[in-house]
Amino acid sequence: MKFNFESTMLFSASVDGTCKAWDLRSRSYEPTQTMNEAKDNVTSLYLTDSQILTGSADFSIRRYGLTSHMLLHEFTCI
User: pLDDT per residue over 46-62, tens digit each?
Assistant: First the structure.
């Protein structure tokens, strides 16, 4: 799990192949966004000031926009 720089968003990576975004200001128990492009466990998560980077057991690294949560690029290492 990682917080954004303002600590208003929480991001989680999971063995179910998802990365989820949680808006901590909303006090909701539901994620605001689910990124589910991974085909296997998401094992690593890194945030920059503008991007979300995930690594998964399907040998891929995915880059998402921090505010849009849209997939920007996928790198596959096989």
Answer: 999 999 999 999 999 99
Tell me the C-alpha distance between 12 and 76, whole Å. 21
Neighbours of 22 (CB within 10 A): 18
What is the residue whose two structure tokens read 């085909």?
A: 39
Across the chain, where does the E strand assignment appear?
Answer: 2-3, 9-13, 19-23, 33-35, 42-47, 51-56, 60-65, 71-76
What is the reported pTM? 0.89
Tell me: the pLDDT tens digits for 13-46?
Answer: 999 999 999 999 998 899 999 999 999 999 999 9
CA distance 62 to 77: 11
Q: Are 75 and 44 in contact (CB under 8 A)?
A: no
Look at the block and give the residue holding tokens 């720089």.
Answer: 5
